[in-house]
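Hi there, hope your week has been kind to you so far. Thanks so much in advance, here it is.
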Amino acid sequence: MDDRQFRQAMGKFATGVTVITTEVDGEAHGMTANAFMSVSLVPKLIVISVGERAQMLEKIKQSKKFAVNILSGEQQEYSMLFAGQIKEKREVNFDRLADLPVLTGAIAQVACEVVNEHVEGDHTLFIGKVIDLQVEEEEPLLFFNGKYRSLTPEESFSK
């Protein structure tokens, strides 16, 4: 199997879209990621995966904390900006949660302290202990098969 085939297969898994944020020396940093999941309820733990070539890797190692911003369906531009798909400089206004920068309008903001990290292949998995969170009721931004998507209206599956 080649790399392209592997990426194509992984793209068949529909995900939400997040922007991971942190702060180093008073400057906010962010990156778009869909490699995020809940790990444990007690204690409340999540995991994010950051590539070895991502600038964010050293930022999180330095700060020892991060926030996960789960994007709403109206925030595709944030996803594209923090993924480097939008090249021109844009002003981003951040809110604060547990002394971390978070994106205004995200449907969930989850602030974490790094409690462990594991290097696996060409990524580092950061285990984060949740120290604060905020939730809004909006529709999520989704990603499937290399494209942004949205939820369709709920349908009944009963017969």
Q: What stands out?
A: The domain at 18-147 is CATH 2.30.110.10 (Pnp Oxidase; Chain A). The mean pLDDT is 93. DSSP finds three helices and twelve strands in the chain. The two ends are 41 Å apart (CA to CA).
